[in-house]
Amino acid sequence: xxxxxxxxxxxxxxxxxxxxxxxxxxxxxxxxxxxxxxxxxxxxxxxxxxxxxxxxxxxxxxxxxxxxxxxxxxxxxxxxxxxxxxxxxxxxxxxxxxxxxxxxxxxxxxxxxxxxxxxxxxxxxxxxxxxxxxxxxxxxxxxxxxxxxxxxxxxxxxxxxxxxxxxxxxxxxxxxxxxxxxxxxxxxxxxxxxxxxxxx
Length: 200
Prior knowledge:
Largest sheet: none
Shape: elongated
Order of helices and strands: HHHHHHHHH
Strand content: under 5%
Helix content: over 70%
Distance between the termini: 69 Å
Number of helices: 9
Structural class: mainly alpha
């Protein structure tokens, strides 16, 4: 049997990930099966298991690819700005946009992964830390620049901000209510900067 080229293996890997993303989005984690994912990817069930140990492994791979993409985009959006307020608003806006553009993956992460026993110490938890650490970086930069008070706890601010956004977005993610991205980003930025910025 001829060897499969690395390019062909990568194509199969990507096809399985794309199929899994679609199946999870349509049926949820429990409702999707490896057989259905393999059918969408146009491969055999057995071949899918050559690339992924099980369905959970596949879910984590889908979410890791998702995080890699949105992390690059978040950093690009945030670090093209100079002032703290502008960076903060760009971060909030981009995070809200993720809930709109990738609603199904956000729902999967919140409902199926974050509270699960295998989340702690996983590659997905590390990607989530890297993603939310963008806020910590801009706060520390702003403290050095004299824009943010030195007594502000960056980790507490991170928890407050991302917790608030998730709470606001949860109804939208579950098909109930709207998510006004630009308006919410402006209002949250104004509310937070009053409490933490040197000049209020």
